[in-house]
Design goal:
- The protein is an alpha+beta fold and 700 residues long.
- 31% of the residues lie in helices and 30% in strands.
- The protein contains 14 helices and 29 strands.
- An eight-stranded antiparallel beta sheet has the order 8-7-9-10-21-20-18-19, sandwiched between helices. The protein has a six-stranded mixed beta sheet with strand order 1-2-3-4-6-5. A five-stranded mixed beta sheet has the order 11-12-13-17-16.
- Helix 1 (87-100) crosses helix 2 (127-141), helix 1 (87-100) crosses helix 8 and helix 13 (575-584) runs antiparallel to helix 14.
- It starts with 5 loop residues before the first strand and ends in a 10-residue tail after the last strand.
- The relative contact order is 0.08.
- The model has no long low-confidence stretch (mean pLDDT 93).
């Protein structure tokens, strides 16, 4: 039945990688089933027969589709089916998109969709890496024009050693989370999170990853040789070169003059009459070609900026290639937030607000990995006004999610543990003005906000970007690229870290890859830049985290109680813990390991809750003295006294007073608060108290 069914096998990091073709999804342009251990991904590539009209970009969609059946889960939503992609799925889609996109023909405008369905997950074998390799194979064997293949691996740093595709246990201990994608000749994508790993070690890990990838490229090419389809012909959307030459002759000098400024507003204003002049001149000669005219003007600007950078080492704002734009930092802008910071780099400006909350407000996750909650959340917003556009607000897109995750990854290594700082932490970065490198400005602004909020981070983190211009055998890097250099350049190499080492990397490319020399240079450029920002901008603004959290933030107390005492603190149906919260106004969370987190805006309320919990979990020793409430009286026997919610004992009538007592009611009534001394427990484990022996105890 499956006469075209083929199986291809190779080894990757000591584990078998199996590719099956010709059996499933045969109506797609290209498809394969990837098996890596017990991880199984169905990878399908499809393309439209005709280009999409009216666009000047490749309409590529990469969809990493998590299916919860892959890990034996039923979705937790009301509908009990997968809904919008999880944040992890969006980030994985971006990681796969970035190395694949630059290798399509520049003039292709046909819709291309990569559907990567996660069908089974083995925690020791990354579904992200399997999907990236599968996407490359599906495109390579399809008839879709593409200049691949690429392949990718995950790299860890475990016990000081570089490990390719570490298993789940190794990833838990790894100081590095590095994803590298490459062709046989060049590295095309780098994404990393790290615990302040030095630049040289990260560079070495990238190079080792590339050496591992090279045999994978040979493996994929062998599959193409056996079953690959001829690539289809497509309608080229290349610009009209005759029209381009006419436009350059007409307004080339005017465009150069308009571009050379450090103010985006002045540049945009100067370009408007140029666009109008070109439209008036060529509108009749090229009817219905508005999009082509605008594309030619874009290409003209790109040609000018790239020539300046590569041939003259001249930047549009007059800076040197190694010069950062003017910087400014400020904290405490927002009086009622728990912490705030504003970071300005040229015309890029980001305000970050920090919010502290009880750990119960950590984000719950429902995904295909083992992570069930996230204590630290970082969200990024970039409204239309930040780039001067009249654009209505909308839900965050993939770019916003990606930038927020990058800043989150950059700062996570310096955050205190939950035990040392028992808070859930949310940062929101508001991009209020954008002219390039907003994600790295978010990193800097977030460092300021955390320190202003009194979060005891171990070191300040700064982020900076490095750009690239290439032409044949020439290349040139520049630090701190602004928007125009990002649009017209070949690379946006973003690195965040402390003075000690790297905490996050994200590399975006528009060319077919980077050589080791370019990568090494980018590390050197960004290391100098981030240290300069830390020493000369962040630290002078706020030298250390504030000694205490904001008066508007909840005050947190954490203790550890014996696991067998958790039931006593909670009480039947939550009765005890609810009473403590009602009496003190505090919020209390208890974890399965006995960790107790008490939150209260008023510190005294928190201490009162702590005192009550300690009384519950503490087994009274003979001689301990308590203040308790009389809850019940038996006239000729004694009084029951509660020293903590759910914990009470009896004061025998003979122990009520120094003189003889005829009736209990002669000494105490229900509701009285009295001082009692513990006499220990009886044979049935019941507490016994004495008021008589406590009368002589003088309070501290």
């Amino acid at each position: 039945m499956f006469e075209n069914y083929k199986v291809f096998k190779t080894m990757l990091a000591g584990r078998e990688l199996v590719i099956e073709t010709g059996k499933v999804a045969q109506l797609a342009n290209g498809s394969c089933l990837v098996r890596y251990g017990e991880t199984v991904i169905l990878c399908c590539a499809t393309a439209s027969a005709a280009p999409r009209d009216g666009i000047d970009f490749l309409p590529l969609s990469v969809d990493f589709e998590e299916r919860l059946y892959s890990v034996g889960k039923i979705p937790g939503s009301f509908l009990k089916r997968e809904g919008r992609p999880s944040e992890k799925a969006v980030l994985t889609s971006r990681v796969i998109d970035r190395p694949i996109r630059p290798l399509f023909p520049k003039d292709l405008r046909n819709d291309v969709v990569l559907s990567l369905t996660v069908m089974s997950v083995d925690p020791d074998n990354s579904p992200e890496i399997a999907a990236m390799i599968g996407a490359s194979i599906a495109l390579t064997i399809s008839d879709i024009p593409w200049n691949g293949p690429i392949a990718g691996v995950f790299v860890g740093l475990v016990d000081g050693k570089i490990v390719i595709n570490p298993n789940a246990e190794q990833r838990e201990r790894s100081e590095l989370e590095l994803t590298v994608a490459a062709t046989k000749e060049k590295v095309v994508m780098i994404e990393a999170g790290a615990k302040e790993v030095d630049d040289d070690t990260v560079y070495e890990a990238i190079m080792k990853a590339h050496e591992t990838i090279k045999p994978l490229i040979d493996f994929i090419n062998s599959i193409r040789s056996e079953i690959g389809k001829p690539k289809f012909e497509y309608a080229s959307c290349e610009i009209d070169h005759d029209l381009f030459d006419k436009i350059e002759s007409l307004v080339g000098a005017d465009v150069e003059k308009a571009l050379f400024t450090d103010d985006k507003r002045i540049r945009d204003a100067a370009l408007k009459p140029i666009y109008q002049k070109v439209s008036d001149t060529f509108g009749e000669e090229y009817p219905d070609q508005t999009a082509m005219i605008n594309e030619c003007l874009y290409k003209l600007q790109k040609k000018i900026v790239r020539r300046w950078l590569l041939d003259e080492q001249k930047r549009v704002d007059g800076r040197r290639m190694d010069q950062i734009r003017p910087l400014a930092a400020e904290v405490g802008l927002l009086p009622r937030t728990h912490g705030s910071g504003m970071f300005t780099r040229g015309q890029t400006q980001v305000i970050t607000a920090a919010t502290l909350a009880p750990v119960r407000e950590a984000q719950l996750l429902d995904g295909i990995d083992n992570e069930e909650e996230k204590r630290y959340m970082h969200h990024y917003n970039m409204p239309g006004y930040s780039v001067g556009e009249a654009k209505a607000a909308r839900s965050p897109g993939r770019r916003e999610i990606g930038h927020g995750a990058l800043a989150e990854r950059a700062l996570e290594p310096v955050l205190p543990s939950k035990e040392d700082f028992p808070y859930a932490i949310r940062l929101v970065s508001e991009v209020v003005s954008s002219n390039g490198s907003t994600s790295q400005a978010s990193v800097c602004g977030s460092t300021l906000a955390l320190m202003d909020a009194g979060v005891p981070i171990t070191a300040p983190v700064a982020g900076i970007s490095c750009g690239l211009i290439t032409a044949e055998d020439k290349w040139m890097t520049m630090i701190d690229i602004q928007g125009l250099e990002d649009f017209f350049g070949d690379m946006d190499f973003k690195v965040a870290g402390t003075k000690k080492g790297i905490t996050a990397i994200q590399m975006d490319l528009k060319i077919d890859g980077l050589t080791p020399e370019i990568i090494k240079n980018a590390f050197e450029v960004t290391r100098k830049g981030r240290i300069d920002i830390i020493d000369n901008v962040l630290t002078p603004c706020i030298a250390a985290p504030r000694s205490d959290v904001s008066k508007y933030a909840p005050k947190m107390i954490s203790i550890k109680i014996p696991v067998d005492k958790i039931r006593e603190v909670i009480g039947t149906g939550g009765k005890v813990i609810q009473k403590i919260c009602a009496d003190t106004g505090a919020k209390i969370d208890i974890e399965d390991d006995g960790s107790v987190f008490i939150a209260a805006v008023d510190k005294e309320a928190g201490n009162a809750a702590l005192k009550t919990i300690n009384a519950i979990v503490h087994d009274p020793e003979p001689g301990d003295v308590f203040i308790g409430k009389v809850t019940k009286i038996i006239s000729d026997l004694g009084a029951f006294v509660e020293i903590a919610p759910g914990k009470e004992g009896m004061v025998h009538i003979s122990k009520l007073d120094k003189k003889r007592v005829a009736k209990v009611e002669d000494v105490v009534t229900v509701g009285d608060e009295i001082k009692v001394m513990s006499l220990g427990t009886d044979q049935k484990g019941r507490l016994n108290f004495s008021r008589r022996d406590a009368l002589d105890i003088i309070d501290d």
